# Entry
Amino acid sequence: MIQEAIQYPALIKYLKGFSNYTWVHYGDGRKVLLAKSLVFFEKKLSGFLRVHKTALVNPHYIADFQAPPGHKMAGSVSLRDGETLPVSRRRWSLIIDPLLVTMLPSSLPTHGEPVHSPLAAQVGIEKKRPSVASRRMWMVMADELKSGLVQQLMGEKWSQWGLKLFDTGNGLQKVIAGIGEADMPAVIVLDGSQPGSLLTLQTLKNSSRFRFIPTILLSSAGNYDQAQQGYASGANSVIVYPTDLPRFIQVLEKMFRYWLSVASAPQAGNVSSVPV
# Structure
């Protein structure tokens, strides 16, 4: 269990230390007690924030934060599920800057201009977006936990790629008509568990602008009919993913390694120039 926690940190919501033991709280609700101190995990999980002497938090699960209301008083962070953890007064200034970077809205345009985030405004800090990503991946993923895992995996290993997440295939289809050539994706991933995913796939492959973009359909294990229908509808690949989250991450990593690092995806602006 200790090895799993270290190998798949994206699954962890936060850790609570108790003497020489640590409670590991996972995003799917699991809670496991491990015979290692919180200091041990702090050294292994470099991206996590030590918000309190007893708490180590995965910043991707933080939804909001509250500054200390007064002198010598603690602040707090609110997690996506509504749970709140204290932030000790002396640690506040150490975590606020990396926390703001993590929580900047990912849907804002990325042209290097200043972003005036409401979160940054709370503490008077202005951040700049990173430079434009060379390639973009669009992904339909309604499951909030899995969406978070995708974002973390991309940020850790494929940060040079831009990521745009959609809750539904309909949301993706609405964007298609007005998207400019410079903002075209190089890879598209569709969650097959979403109703209408095959219709979205067919819409993409019937479009003269999008048909050449590699499109991957994620299919749950045992859904053989969907895999066949996916290929019949023009999917470039159908990936079967397991239900347990550690293996889900393994499958995602292998898929991204091929499609984002090995395969030659089309450059933005060049897709529509391919002869038909």
About this structure: The radius of gyration is 21 Å. Confidence is low (pLDDT under 50) at residues 105-132. DSSP finds nine helices and 15 strands in the chain.
